[in-house]
Design goal:
This protein is an alpha/beta fold. The chain has one domain: Spore Coat Polysaccharide Biosynthesis Protein SpsA, Chain A (Alpha-Beta Complex), CATH 3.90.550.10. It is 31% helix and 22% strand. It contains four helices and four strands. A four-stranded parallel sheet has the order 3-2-1-4, with helices on both faces. Helix 2 links the parallel strand 2 and strand 3. The protein is globular, with a radius of gyration of 14 Å. The N and C termini lie far apart (44 Å). The model has no long low-confidence stretch (mean pLDDT 95).
């Protein structure tokens, strides 16, 4: 049986290589200690080099490479079936996380066991 982690992040990607790169860098720079993280990228048959980017620059990330575009919901479901996390986070490939965001969210969920879901503030590029 695979070892459990605290947080599983699922990202669906379709031809968003440059945005995906920025997101994955922001996840890599997250300060999550003492929690553990796994990231799963579900690629919906991208043709822009997204898969190669993940394999080359982020070998620790689990890549699910679909042979066709399954759509957002089906791709997320495929990723969710592969998670090992106590908590799950679905992120769009056009997002980035601040260094402490994930830790704050996991801390909140740990302190509020009666909650089944949480979200965080969304800050758009223009503030």
């Amino acid at each position: 049986m695979a070892k459990k982690v605290d947080l599983s992040v699922i990202v669906v990607s379709f031809n968003t290589r440059d945005l995906l790169d920025k997101l994955l860098v922001s996840l890599k720079q997250s300060r999550l200690t003492p929690y553990t993280l796994e990231t799963i990228v579900v690629d919906n048959a991208s043709t822009d080099g997204s898969r190669e980017l993940v394999k080359r620059n982020f070998p620790q990330i689990k890549l699910i490479a679909n042979d066709r575009n399954l759509g957002f919901a089906a791709a997320n479901n495929k990723g969710l079936r592969q998670t090992r996390g106590k908590y799950l986070l679905l992120l769009n490939s056009d997002t980035q996380v601040e260094p402490d965001t994930l830790k704050v969210m996991v801390d909140f969920m740990e302190a509020n066991r009666g909650f089944g879901a949480a979200t965080c503030r969304v800050v758009l590029p223009d503030g």
